[in-house]
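quick one, two chains, predict together pls
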Amino acid sequence: MTKTADWIAVDWGTTHLRVWVFGPGDEEIAHLTAEKGMGALVRGEYEAALLGLIAPYLADGVATQVIACGMVGARQGWAEAGYQTVPCPPPGIEAATRVATSDPRLDLWILPGLSQDHPPDVMRGEETQIAGVLSENPGFDGTLCLPGTHAKWVQISAGEIVSFRTVMTGELYAAISAHTVLRHSVGEADDEAAFLDGVQDGLMSPEALSVLMFRLRAESLLEGLSPGAAAARLSGLLIGLELAGTRGYWLGAEVAIVGGATLTAKYAAALRAQGLVPRVADGGAMALTGLRAAHSSAVDDGGPK
Amino acid sequence: MTKTADWIAVDWGTTHLRVWVFGPGDEEIAHLTAEKGMGALVRGEYEAALLGLIAPYLADGVATQVIACGMVGARQGWAEAGYQTVPCPPPGIEAATRVATSDPRLDLWILPGLSQDHPPDVMRGEETQIAGVLSENPGFDGTLCLPGTHAKWVQISAGEIVSFRTVMTGELYAAISAHTVLRHSVGEADDEAAFLDGVQDGLMSPEALSVLMFRLRAESLLEGLSPGAAAARLSGLLIGLELAGTRGYWLGAEVAIVGGATLTAKYAAALRAQGLVPRVADGGAMALTGLRAAHSSAVDDGGPK
């Protein structure tokens, strides 16, 4: 017999929907995922997508608390959950938006994103991973790097997000490798040395970026550069450019990288090449820790306000 | 009654096929275009695509000379026409590859591209525009800028192409504006001041490129940046990055820009903002002049060798 949920944590991004179902005593009774991110849904489809995963765990006659973070709260998401403005602590349940649902078994709360006025910037989803990091490391003072489609560099001090900067690295890599002439020359990145060469080129010669990109094509035509090495160099160039554009965030700072295994390994290698010794944490685990922290404070306060 | 061709000039790039048909006395009797570039064709389809335009002008029992340049000679084109290596004069008919055709009315010659060993680089099509420029201005000594999908910066001295550099600006703009989150924020560029701001940012702060790109998204979300201004800034950023990566080509040099009206106007504005007074020439006209020069030398020599 399927167990009944006590509460449900949801990390809902552009490409993925990740759900953790908790029973009494905060026991994790299910971890479910679907490729139903914001990019694959229109507004009316969110509730059905969520119910498709969690319906078996909902009890009739009870509104089960669901706490969600990520692009689900964007203007194009289920419902807009607004932004908190930095500097501020990571937003908790008291800043969440309660969203009306058709199914009475849902008591849905979406956490807000963060915005920055000067220079203008936004994040959505990463603030909950940051909440997780600070929940586990309350005294952390330094820089968090959250690589991904839109990588975030975040300055943390005294429990607050002081400032942050978004870099389009992941999305640039995807667009360039699939939608330019480089699609004929890049494959699966498989060359660590070529990656690190790219990082140094991107970091030391950012002005040459769009020259060095075409050079990958020329080298593959004229010198037989392999698709794996070309992909590794392209990835390195873009991460090197990112490091050039975020130097103030990492130079001489304590840096922790938060994300999936593949990306954090790349960023750690790139930063070690600059003499840093970054710590690494899993992004999915930190999102869950952040959602748990929001749930705990809701329970402590007798429910979301 | 349709006139019969004496010879035919073909500029065949990635996206376009442009044909000029000449009668006796080098009179232009037709100018035809089709959106049948290399990107839309596979190897066996080139001859039919060309005949679809020029068949009415071919005489039976005669092989009409066709001189072509551009991606039609690429590895993925009709037939690979190889490369000449710089430094060298623009390649003429003596370097062309004769391509066998099914239809005996065609006597097809494809001009080669140019390659550079250090650093590795290639061009295909622009060399014929350069031939046109040098045919009209034999004493030109300076830099040619040929903006486009893959912009080329070319150092010319003593009638030779000394060196060149390719920058992926046009293709980056297309990929980024269509295949990243910026697709929600950019429209038709319509703001000259925003364009020039972008140029200065890209030129002075190339390391911030992938930060400034996301900032367009943040400004459109938080401050209502218009799609026209966002597009102009993005275009300016990428052209500014190009100028940063080609400074040795234009700083203190005589520069002529060769291309279509819209792009040459943008590049001229960007270079004027750096204190230059660039000349401008039409790319299609220069390609035709280059193809005519190849034809003339073929006639002078009694035919291609």
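Residues 227-245 of chain B form the longest helix (19 residues).
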